[in-house]
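Quick board copy: two proteins, each given as sequence then tokens.
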Amino acid sequence: IPVEPEEKWERDVDLAWRSRQGPKIAGQSAAADVAKVLNAPNLKSTKYPTLDKLLDASHYLDFRWRREGNAIIRI
């Protein structure tokens, strides 16, 4: 069963991460993409101050991505 995004930012983050080369994204780069999508200076200044909290808050992203060390991996 496909999981649909609940909010536009979820799809925008997914698109930003998918536009990067390869299935693995450095945590710092992934966080910068999220901050840009959410129009914030950095990830810590959003309501999702860590990538783990972001993935926990979004079933859409959690279905497509996972944390591995300091990286985000496409599933």
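And the next:
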Amino acid sequence: MKVVKQISAIQDISDYYRCLGKKVALVPTMGFLHEGHISLMLKAKDENDILVTSIFVNPAQFSKGEDFDKYPRDITRDYHICDKAGVDYIFNPESEEMYKKPGFTTVTVSDISDKLEGKFRPEHFTGVATIVVKLLNAVKPDYLYLGQKDAQQNVIIKKIIEDLNNDTKIIICQTLREENGLAMSSRNTYLSEDEKNKAAVLYY
């Protein structure tokens, strides 16, 4: 397993394998990996030749006053999990690599991004759409593996790929849940046990 920090380097790696006829898969994450991420990685590894997992806490999808600074991070643990899951390359760029200049180009999916969650987080899905396009351009995957849990996000990503004529195929995978039914999420660490039990009612 190798860790890659530069966009140009991961592009070269992907080009090399695709020229050999190998299938490249991407599992995009913001780190602090859990069993849900692992299930995506194992499936992607089983179905493709080369697995890239991105680890990048994307500042563009956090609005002012949200939890960017306290978002859980443990990169050493994440590297270990990726290694055990059979990841071939971790793409772990710094923010300065992904957003090199202020006033960078953004991607907005109209008529979807401002609905549901987007109504309360007006900048969120523009940040998500922008980083997804940047990751697709960097890794150039044949297949993109996503968890079913983030339904609105998945609809937006599907529309991006369709509207921008990208040839990446999306694989939506079943949500993994805690024993009480709560969907696994890195942010579950914010919840007390009582709050986790109360949140599980959303599943039932």
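Board note added afterward: The longest strand covers residues 24-29.
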